[in-house]
C-alpha cells in the first residue's frame, strides 16, 4: 500500500477523533496550524517509545504500543498541570508490518486520545528496521500557572500519586497501558502545588532532578507507597511509573485521592546540598533508570 | 557518562544558542513553555531523520546529521511561510557513540539553529541500536496567513525554487547539508502566493499531493530546472530536494530569485481530474519517493 493511501486512512481515523477548535489545519499540509488563545501558555514535550527499550512485539500489541506512545508524552503534560490540545505522531515500522498493523497502532493511540480529548494533528511515517515512535504533545495552561520542577522550597511536603515500582517489578508484562495522570495534574494546579514532575525513571533519580532544579534536598520517610508485589528497590529505582511527584506548602490542602488515584505524603524538602536525598535519615543514591549508565 | 550530565551539556550548548523571547521555560523541565502572541498562528511539524534511510555513519559526520535533522523540519516551516520559533530534538544513539558524538551532533544542529534563529527548547535522548532523530519545529505566521497546499486555482502559475534532482543524483554524497528555504518562504508569504509545499519526495509526487489538496490538476512544461549532472528522472522522481514548490495568480509579481535562490515557472494549474499531472502534454505518473511502495 502506498504512503499516500496509508496517510489518507490515518487522516480519516484522526478526523473521527477529538477536534480541538484551536487546531485550524491538521493532517494534510506541511505543518499543523494552531490559533493560540489570549491568557494561556502552551507547553510542549516529545518522547520516544522504542522497540526493545519500552516494548517488544511479543508482549505488546500494535494498539498497546499506540497507547503507550501517546501516554508517555501525555504524562509530561500532566506533570505541568496542562490540558491536552494536540499531538504529532512519528511512527517508523518494518516492511513486515502492514497497513493493518498501522491501523491498530492508531486505534490504540486514538482510544486514549478520545478519552483525554487530544487532537492528532499530524506526524511522520517512515520505514525502519524496528518499530520506533516519537510523540510530541502540546497542552495549554493558564498564563504563568504551569507546575514547574523549580518551585520546591524547604519545609514543603513531598507527595506522589498512586503506587510505585509495579512496572519495574512486572517488566514488559503489566501495565501494558499506563494511564497518564491528566485529571490529577489539573487538580494539583488548582491546588497551587509548588513543584512537580512525572515519574519515568524511578522516584530516586526523578526526585534528585526535581531537587537540582529547585536547589534543595529531600528527606523521604518510610513507608513509601509500593505497588503490590514490587520491592522498595523497584519503587525507588525502577522506571516507567508515570505517576506524579510533587511538593506543596504544608498549608495546602492536598486530598487523600484525586480521580480515584491515592496520594501519599512521602517526605519533606530540606535546604541541604542541592539534589541530595535521604531515606529515613540515610543517604540515598539517585541511581534509577539511566539510559546512558 | 550519565544521562543527567549529558543533558546538562546539551542544555549549556542550547542556552548559548538563540533565545526566542516567547519561550519562557526550555530544557530542564517536563515540558517547554511558550507564551503565544496575539494575532499570530503557530505552525508545527515533526520529521524523522534515520540511519540507513536519510544518512549513513560513513557518509555523514555527527554534525552533518545534526544539521540535516533540523533542516528537514525547518523546510516544512519554510513551506508555510513561517518564521522559526523553537524546536524539540529527539535523538537515539548506539552505545558505541559517546558523549563527544552527541556534542558534535548538537554543534551541527545549533550552527543551523543560530543562523535561522530557532531556540532548542527540549527533546528526548535514548539509547538505540541505530542513530535515529526526530525534530519537531514550531514557527509563527501572521494570523490566517500561512501558505497552504489547498489554495491553488486553475490558471495559477506553478513555480519552484532552486534546481531539482541533485540529491537524488548524488545520493548520500552531496549536499550533506541541505539549506531550508526559510527566507524564500517568508518572501513568498508577503507576495501572497496561492499555495505551497516543500519538495521532499520528488516534484511529481509532491505536486500530485498539492493538486489533491487543491482539487486541481497540473500541466508542467519543459525545460524543468534540473541540477547539474542530474537527469529529468532525478528531478521528477528523486527525493530530498528541500526546495519550495508554489503557485501564484498570474498577476502576482514573482521575482527571478529570492535570497540568491533562482525561481522558475514550470507550468500552470488546470481544472482537470484532482491530482493528475501532465508534462508537455503527456500524462505523468506521480511515482516519486514513496517509503511504503
Number of strands of chain A: 14
User: For the largest interface in this structure, which chains are involved and how many residues does each contribute?
Assistant: A-B, 69 and 68 residues
Helical percentage of chain A = 25-40%
Largest sheet of chain A: 8 strands, mixed
State the end-to-end CA separation of chain A.
Answer: 41 Å
Helix and strand pattern of chain A = HEEEHEHEEEHHEHEHEEEEE
Taken as a percent bin, the fraction of beta residues of chain A is 25-35%
Unreliable segments of 5+ consecutive residues of chain A: none
Individual helix count of chain A: 7
Radius of gyration of chain A: 19 Å
* Overall mean confidence score, pLDDT of chain A: 93
Give the assembly state of these chains: homodimer
Shape category of chain A: globular
Structural class of chain A: alpha+beta
